[in-house]
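User: Predict the complex with S-adenosylmethionine.
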Amino acid sequence: MPDDPRTAPPRPEGPRDDHRSVQEFFGTRAAGWDARFPDDERAYAAAVARLGLSRGDTVLDAGCGTGRALPPLRSAVGDRGTVLGVDLTPEMLAAATTAGRDQWALLLLADVSRLPLVHASLDAVFAAGLIAHLPQPDVGLRELARVVRPGGRLALFHPLGRAALAARQGRQIGDDDLRAEPRLNDLLAASGWRMTSYEDQDARFLVLAIRQNQHPRDRRGGIG
Ligand SMILES: C[S@@+](CC[C@H](N)C(=O)[O-])C[C@H]1O[C@@H](n2cnc3c(N)ncnc32)[C@H](O)[C@@H]1O
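Assistant: Here is the predicted structure with S-adenosylmethionine placed in the model:
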């Protein structure tokens, strides 16, 4: 495997192995994470701006890592707003704290596929570099839909487009790629989201979606 921290860790057997594999992969990279990507600040701020947050909103940074998106998220929602950062890797959250980013958000150690949040409690979710690391992206996206209010928003962001990232990792991408437009559109629709914008340029991958009124679980007898 190339030594690139944006490369997905090997796929393990079950949920506990999935977690351990993610934690091992990112745990060893957490301390040097920000130094490896020093020029991304403006790209994160620009992506956050596209989320259309208002003062006083409640927003989650899902898979927040070292918290690079937390300062622009806090700026967008202001002092009366709420910013949460969730990550599965303790070392990433520790690096966020060391960098002082815990001043902008409440940081939680949790799995985005099983969030300790009540239904429809968020206005929006920002997720940078997350989706490719989820063993079951549909489960993660459904859980994010559960905690976002109808009409709330989702941004799936990466500071590199698909082709640029694949080239860096020395691999090819095809239409079966998780983040290919038709596939992601279907995945989002089946998970309670309506895709409203899809951008895949060298310098950024950014998909925006709106939480549909009906959550997939509603059809099976109520959100639960
Ligand atoms: C590529 S890093 C991106 C970190 C940060 N969002 C950024 O843009 O710098 C992916 C992050 O997702 C976290 N992650 C992966 N699977 C997760 C899960 N199921 N729940 C919460 N966090 C997860 C990893 O621990 C890691 O910090």
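Residues 40 and 158 are 10 Å apart (CA to CA).
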